[in-house]
Specification:
Shape: globular
Radius of gyration: 24 Å
Strand content: 5-15%
Strand order of the largest sheet: 4-5-6-1-7
Oligomer: single chain
Largest sheet: 5 strands, parallel
CATH topology of the largest domain: Rossmann fold
CATH class of the largest domain: Alpha Beta
Number of domains: 2
Structural class: alpha/beta
Helix content: 40-55%
Length: 487
């Protein structure tokens, strides 16, 4: 494995670990956790996640050609609302919880990891991990799920190198996160191969070539994913655009969900499943499996509400980015018109604003008004207009024709018990900048504890075995390690 300091895709230059005192006593002495940035309080996290767009007033005086080249900068604006803050908290907790029983300073844990990487190890006992939970992120297409995920992940270095800890030499690589996009109409194998591609992009390896053989089964690829995840000390895996996974190519809804659950079981690290309401339609058929898929968190990205403080704040920041020489002041009419042309979907609002600016620049208009926004929105394609009309009318029958932007019938009643009795984040008022909830009842305890108990995972088994007089014998009796005399 190559680990020099040249640029490597998303990872860039691999930093050497800088250790910070443990935030809680349970994580003290674990370099994988102590090398992570400190968790920020909600207000500080909001500032860290916010991505403003700086614009010089003189830009409005540039030539039309130059201004047309600048209008797309509005796409770079990111305002973190409640959902993003909740996501930051959930992912931070999942990463640390996943590392809790994987300590590279523990000889038994290190030995055990490499034993699991042996070709003859039976992985059948390695089932649901008690520390490797999963998060579920659901929402309408265009409401900022992927952007929020990327903003949160960017608060962590992707790759860290460990060379020395408390005077002891180390030679370990820690891949804190991987973000995988599920290709359109993908099979289970296609998604597995995306994992190896993401690893290669992060650390400059060639695992995709190594494991991309047509002869390898999906089950074998998942085992290789689990081995790599442990050897590379992977903190969290994000699987995005999951609605693209083809039901036809995965064997139907039940096989689809069984595959997702097996990913958590075998890969052995926290996984974040991200998808549109199209994914929600599949999940609603299997309550128990879905409940297990979000034991580390559940965040719903809903459309913004008309007239909400969050929508007005976003619209005002967007309005400041106009490049027309004569700037009309921001008003309620502007916020409402932008809402009418997007129905609270951030991506459509930004596109409408950019389209209106282009029209104004190309025609030499002196100002930009709410009427220009309405005219720009009216030029959207017919399919988009039909979707927006269905959302505007709130017609439940019509909205079911657009599974990526509208929740399925019964979703609201179904999602609340799925979240363990807590409201989904969106139900606090989509996008509102609120103090995140700290009550995690139903995620790490509380309602839902009557679900079947999971099998003991190898990481937890190490901790439990160390409490016995014969730890290696205890692990051997569970069928998790070979006899040390045979190594």
């Amino acid at each position: 494995m190559t680990t020099n300091d040249r640029d490597r895709g998303l990872a860039g230059r691999i930093p050497v670990a800088e250790y910070r005192p443990a935030e809680i006593p349970e994580t003290a002495g674990n370099p994988l956790i102590e090398a992570l940035p400190l968790v920020l309080e909600a207000d500080d996290a909001r500032r860290a996640l916010y991505r403003p767009v700086s614009q010089d007033p003189a830009d409005r005086l540039r030539s039309p050609t130059e201004r047309l080249m600048l209008v797309d900068r509005a796409k770079d604006l990111y305002v973190p609302f409640y959902e993003c803050i909740q996501l930051y908290i959930d992912l931070g907790r999942a990463i640390r919880r996943g590392y809790a029983t994987r300590n590279i300073m523990d000889p038994n844990a290190v030995r055990f990891t490499y034993q699991l990487c042996g070709e003859n190890i039976d992985w059948s006992p390695v089932q649901t991990s008690t520390t490797a939970g999963s998060c579920l992120v659901i929402g309408a297409s265009g409401c900022g799920k992927t952007t929020a995920i990327r903003r949160v992940l960017a608060t962590y270095p992707q790759v860290i190198r460990h060379r020395e800890y408390n005077g002891q030499k180390l030679n370990s690589v820690q891949v804190v996160w991987l973000h995988v996009d599920c290709p359109a109409n993908a099979s289970r194998k296609d998604l597995c191969l995306q994992f190896f591609q993401a690893v290669d992009n992060a650390i400059g390896t060639n695992y995709l070539d190594q494991y991309g053989s047509a002869r390898r089964s999906t089950e074998n690829l998942q085992i290789q994913m689990g081995r790599l995840a442990r050897v590379l000390n992977l903190g969290i895996l994000v699987v995005d655009e999951l609605q693209n996974l083809s039901l036809a190519r995965t064997g139907g809804a039940k096989q689809f969900l069984a595959f997702l659950r097996s990913m958590v079981n075998v890969v052995g690290v926290p996984i974040v499943f991200v998808g549109t309401y199209g994914l929600a339609r599949i999940l609603m058929g299997e309550f128990q499996v879905s409940r297990r898929m979000m034991d580390a968190g559940f965040v719903e990205f809903k459309r913004h509400e008309r007239g909400s403080k969050a929508w007005k704040a976003f619209a005002q920041q967007l309005w400041r980015l106009q490049l027309i020489e004569g700037q009309d002041p921001f008003s309620v009419e502007i916020a409402d018109t932008l809402y009418d042309m997007s129905q609270g979907i951030i991506d459509l609002a930004v596109r409408t604003f950019i389209r209106a600016q282009r029209w104004a620049i190309e025609t030499g208009a002196a100002t930009l008004s709410h009427r220009d926004l309405a005219a720009a929105g009216a030029t959207q394609g017919k399919p988009i207009r039909a979707q927006l009309e269905a959302l505007r009318l709130g017609d439940p029958v019509a909205m079911q024709h657009y599974p990526d932007i509208a929740p399925p019938v019964g979703w609201r009643d179904w999602a609340v018990p799925l979240a363990g009795g807590q409201r989904s984040s969106g139900e606090q008022g989509a996008g509102e900048v609120l103090r995140p909830q700290t009550n995690t009842e139903g995620r790490d305890g509380g309602p839902g504890d009557d679900l079947p108990a999971p099998h003991m995972d190898p990481d937890h088994a190490i901790v439990e075995a160390q409490k016995t007089e014969d730890p290696h014998g205890a692990l051997g009796r569970q069928g998790l390690i070979a006899d040390l005399d045979d190594l």
